[in-house]
């Protein structure tokens, strides 16, 4: 069997069908607060769900960065050998 034929077979077996896409969009609708809070969340288009999901992930990343910065600032103000410092370092490194 040629390598191009094998790669086509492998890619076709890993493709997501329409039902799976619908199920994934439904799960995202339930997971994203901005959509879940909408009374008519089932009428939100798939493209809007994906857009809101991207925005939500960006916001989560920003919040995580902000919290990491705040923890780093807090770490500078306490005894580096204290148990609290160890906890803060573990949080920053996760």
Summarize the structure.
This protein is mainly α and 94 residues long. It is built from five helices and no strands.
* Total tally of structural domains: 1
Oligomer: single chain
Can you count the helices? 5
Strands, total number: 0
Write down the secondary-structure element order: HHHHH
Determine the mean pLDDT: 87
Main sheet: strands, sense, barrel: none
Poorly predicted regions? none
Morphology call? elongated
Structural class: mainly alpha
**Intertermini distance:** 46 Å
The percent range for helix content is over 70%
Radius of gyration: 22 Å
Protein name: BHLH domain-containing protein
InterPro entries: bHLH_dom, HLH_DNA-bd_sf, PRE
Pfam families: bHLH_ILI
Subcellular location: Nucleus
Describe the structure.
By secondary structure, the protein is mainly α. It has one domain. 76% of the residues lie in helices and 0% in strands. It contains 5 helices and no strands. α2 (18-31) packs across α4 (46-76). The model has no long low-confidence stretch (mean pLDDT 87).
